Every structure is written in C-alpha cells, then in structure tokens.
Amino acid sequence: MRTPVNAFYYPDMVSSEDTLKKAILFFDEIHFIDRASYSFGGGGMGQIMTIGCASPLRSFESSFRENGVPLYVHAAPIGPLPAEILEQVTADINDSSFVSRFQNGLATSTTFRDIEIVPGNYGESGMQEDLVKTLVGMNLVEGLSQHPNAMALLIDGTVEPFKTRTEVEKARVLVHSAARCSVNINVALQASSKHGMTPFADASPFGDLLGSKYQRAISAAQKTVPSVQLTDLSFSVFDELIPAELLAEMTIRDVVRYRKESTTAREEFLEHLSVLQVKQGALKPDDDYNVAVSKIVTTEIVPAATAYRKKLEGIGETFLGSLAKGAWTAVGTMPVGAVGLTLFGALSWPHLIAFAGPAAALVGTAAIDAFIASRTATRECAISYVLSLES
C-alpha cells in the first residue's frame, strides 16, 4: 500500500489553472495556503512588510470536496515573522547560490517570473519585463559590495527601496524579491512537515531553489535525507508525455470527472512513481535537483511510454491485417476501407452489430481480440493513466 500523496503548493496562495488541473489528476489531497502578512527588520525603510490575502480557492473548497477532490486552504502566519522562519530566510538570501538561482529563474521561466514579479507598472523601473531585464542583467557581487551580506542590505534603511538607479538599489530589489519567495517556501515547508505533506510547485526554478536549501531546510524540517519529491516527478512526467494544448482544452469539471473515472489507474501510476522514487535513492548535497528528476523521466518514463505506444500500434496493425484478409475472403465485394473507417470512426457495439452475416462475425471477433489485447497492454503500463488523456 503506497503512502498517500498529500501535496502542498508553496509558491503563492493560488496556482495557475493548468497546475490545479495536474494536481487534481495526480494527488490524493491538495493543500494551499493564504498569502502571509509578515514583517521583519528595523524601522522606517529598513522594515520589511507584506500584505496578507485570503486564497481565492477558499470559495471553492467545499465544492471540490463534495465532488471527490480533497482540497484545503490553510491560514498563513500574520505579524512578525517567526524566529525559525526568519532564520531560514536569512540563510537563504545570504546564500549567493539561492539568490543567483532566483535571478536565473526570472530569466528562464515565464511562470516563475509572473509569480515572483507580478505583471504591472513599476514606475521608474518600467513595466514587468523592464524590471525583470534589469534584475537579471545586474551584477549581484557589485550590488552587495557595500554590505557584509544580503540581509544587511535588505534591512539597511539608507538604501531607498523599489528603486533601480544604482547597482545597490537593484541588488536590494532583487534580494527583497528573493526574500519574499523564501518566506513562501519556508512557511510551506514548515506547514507541510508539520502535517505530513509534500511540497509541489509549477516551475523548475522552484526545484533549483529547493536544491540549494536541501541540507539547511528540507533535511532539518523533514528529518530525512533529501530525495526527489514525488510531486515534482508527477508533473515532469505529465509535461513530458501530454501536450500543453490538450490540458488547456480540458475544463476543471472534465479533470474532476476523469479523476473519478480513473481511480484505479491513478493508484497504479502513483505506485509506479513511488517505486521509481525509492529506486532513485537519496540526493547528494551538490546534486542538481532538476537533473535528477529529468534523469528518472528520461531513463524510466519515456522508454515505458514508448514501449506502451508501440504495443498498442502492434495491436492495431494485427487487427487491421486480420480484418483486411478476412474481409476480402469472407465478404468478397465489401470494401476493407469501409470496415476500418466504421470501426475506428465510431467504435461502439451498436455500430458493430449493424453489420450482417460474415462481416459481423469478422469485425466482432477482431474487435474483441483488439480490445482484450489493448486492455492487457494498459494493465502492463502504469504510465497509461497519463497517456489515456490523449484519447
């Protein structure tokens, strides 16, 4: 019996619709958290504060649960940042690897960028794309040269916030953004550790940031050796095998219905991934997190999906071959193309029964054989839970 995957979304108070769809498809429970309202630092311009907000998903909690999707929204901390969270945030932003990975995330991921630097007008710094370009192109070492560390710069009341005229001001904006991201990550890690949940996100830069924190945050919070999160592996499998256009065409109602109708297949899929997770083993402190996830997908998932698809193609070729041979000898003048077109255009028993005489027996037998063979192939590949979305 596998361990339930109770997943906790940590980048913000609500995810994109596509991320929510994936979470509904995969996870046993889905947890979100309100946007935190916190403060730390000195007085004046050295005071760091955020404005809290209730997650929009609060309005839909009951509806989701009534329809078989256990979704919950938790209250976020309010007031001064707890000492243990502040300690983690300080360690994060004082770690040049964490800040540089944050900076790289802004450059490489639109999803990450829109979460961390919300689209809008930033006054003298321009629109979102202008500010991001400035932060990505700045020299962090030069920006921090006048301060012993990033936290010292962040709480320095003499450096005007939200300005990007000098390298120091740019560095403060970058560090402030990274600190806000760090708070969200650490609050979620603390909550997920306390309640036995697994963190998940919707952009690879978050995996990079977790990778830079492993020895400091994940090991300390979960009391385990760091390993690939099954939540991240699930999303990576989905992104590898299913076109984004297909997911976009599905409504939330479609996804909820698919979850209900595919309970056994979903169980098999998550069981398969949990085996791969154990097989992967623990990560070393200097391992690249996203590379580790990609390795599992490349070496295990893609070959299994390819073998499954080839097996189904073989079943189809055998079916068409036997159908063509039998139709020619048994039906004589009946065009083979018409049989194939009818079968694959509307594969249903009423359509098959509509054929009379030898053709009915031929199509019926071939269809039954193909149906049984395809079900066997499906049982042999847990990845079919994801691939079946294509049909």
Structure commentary:
Mean pLDDT is 82; it is low at 327-357. The strands form 2 sheets. The chain has a 4-stranded parallel sheet with strand order 5-2-1-7, sandwiched between helices. Strands 4-3-6 form a 3-stranded mixed sheet, with no helix packed on it. Helix 4 (96-108) packs across helix 6 (128-137), helix 4 packs antiparallel against helix 10 (204-213) and helix 12 crosses helix 16. The radius of gyration is 26 Å and the shape is elongated. Strand 3 (37-41) and strand 4 form a beta hairpin. It has helices spanning 17-26, 61-66, 83-93, 96-108, 110-116, 128-137, 140-143, 150-154, 167-195, 204-213, 218-222, 230-241, 244-249, 252-261, 263-280, 289-331, 336-345, 349-353, 357-380, 384-387, and strands at 6-9, 29-33, 37-41, 47-49, 71-74, 78-80, 198-200. The protein has 2 domains: 6-287, no CATH class; 300-390. It is an alpha/beta fold and 391 residues long. It is 62% helix and 7% strand. It has 20 helices and 7 strands. The two termini are 29 Å apart.
